[in-house]
Structure prediction request, 100 residues.
Amino acid sequence: LGVPKDQLIRLISSDDLNASEETVYKAVMMWINHDKRRRKRAMRELMELVRFPFMDKLFFLKTVQNNEAIRKCCQDIVTETLTYQHFPEEVRSPRTHPRS
Prediction:
């Protein structure tokens, strides 16, 4: 939780990261919530690196989509993920590229 933002970015942006996207999301949220006052500004930048389309659909709907902070800062990412879940061939972004 004390890791610098740049180091977290390097870790979660890696195609070689061996973790589920649910785990990546939870780790980012824990990092932000550890010092919410300072770190909430980084939410958008960090959430752009989570590959939401590869999450379990129910987890995404119950946990991510229902998170008010995510809806406020990242509505386009939520919309992208919902679109990908229904029409995967229609959405291309860095988040729709699976990790190795």
About this structure: The chain has a mean pLDDT of 96.
